[in-house]
Amino acid sequence: MNGSPKGSNVPEASMAPPPAAANTTDAATRRNAVLARIETACAASHRAATSVQLLAVSKKFDGSHCLAMAQTGQTSFGENYLQEALAKQQWIADRWQGESLQWHFIGPIQSNKTRQIAEHFDWVHTVDRLKTGQRLNDQRPAQATPLQICLQVNIDHESSKSGCAPELTVTLVRQLAALPNLQLRGLMAIPSASTDLATQRGAFARVRALFKQCQAALKADQHPQMGSFDTLSMGMTGDLEAAIAEGATIVRVGTALFGQRAAKPV
Ligand SMILES: *Cc1c(COP(=O)(O)O)cnc(C)c1O
């Protein structure tokens, strides 16, 4: 994946000045701490530690931070802002010689951005309507492998959040699974913030229940994508334990890996 947004002079979000120079030792310490949290949470639920993938959410941190994280063995990165992500991908491509990195788009999707997302990412977690899926499908380059997608569900019906209404989930899954240049991998959700473990688990449990309904629907259809509908993208720095207890297979972690982000510029 390459190509840099040379023509863009209107960044969607400027990158925060690094809190400290990116440093591989610090990156390894923070990543090991997160991996230990994942391991402990998996053990508590009698799950294999390998059943949960750590996605490093690098928004607002520059390429040097991703590079330091890649040097510790991290290979998948999540980005929210397209222009920032494209610049970072290019910067890293010029410097990274190791195993190829996977880029996951996890931000809200505007229609005019779908082409570049389809061209420059491996995964998209934030598809929340059929139209977006159709555009990504049509714009995925012919020579590329199918774009891996998750349907984002607005599990707490929050007006401020993206995501489909929970009651539309099964219908949308059936429609998205029919698009040939996409591979529908599962569901993604960001519940409303809570520090209470029971509340966190309650929301993730509702996502898991929807996921099971979708699996049953694809199975009933004998759908060819049934076997690859295997992903629950849920859990962040503050609630990854609850998410793992409820079946998360990808946790998206930013703060615990990279530190505090600067406030989003308006
Ligand atoms: C920023 C972000 C994250 C990471 O959040 P942290 O609390 O910093 O771990 C995860 N998922 C999405 C969609 C995000 O936008």
Q: How would you describe what is shown here?
A:
38% of the residues lie in helices and 15% in strands. It has helices spanning 24-44, 63-71, 82-93, 114-120, 130-139, 169-176, 197-220, 240-245, 255-258, and strands at 53-57, 76-79, 102-105, 123-127, 147-153, 182-189, 231-233, 250-253. An 8-stranded parallel beta sheet has the order 7-6-5-4-3-2-1-8. Helix 6 (169-176) links the parallel strand 5 and strand 6 (182-189). The protein starts with 23 loop residues before the first helix and ends in an 8-residue tail after the last helix. The structure holds pyridoxal-5'-phosphate. Pyridoxal-5'-phosphate binds at residues 57, 59, 80, 106, 190, 236-238, 252-255.
The order of strands across the largest sheet is 7-6-5-4-3-2-1-8
Radius of gyration: 18 Å
Mean pLDDT: 92
The molecules bound to the chains, other than polymers, are: pyridoxal-5'-phosphate
Helix-residue proportion = 25-40%
Number of strands: 8
Secondary structure tally, helices: 9
Strand content: 15-25%
SSE topology string: HEHEHEHEHEHEHEHEH
Give the oligomer, counting copies of the same chain as homo and different chains as hetero: single chain
The major sheet is characterized as: 8 strands, parallel
The shape, in one word, is globular
Helix and strand composition category = alpha/beta
Distance between the termini: 30 Å
Which spans of ≥5 residues are poorly predicted at pLDDT below 50?
Answer: 1-12
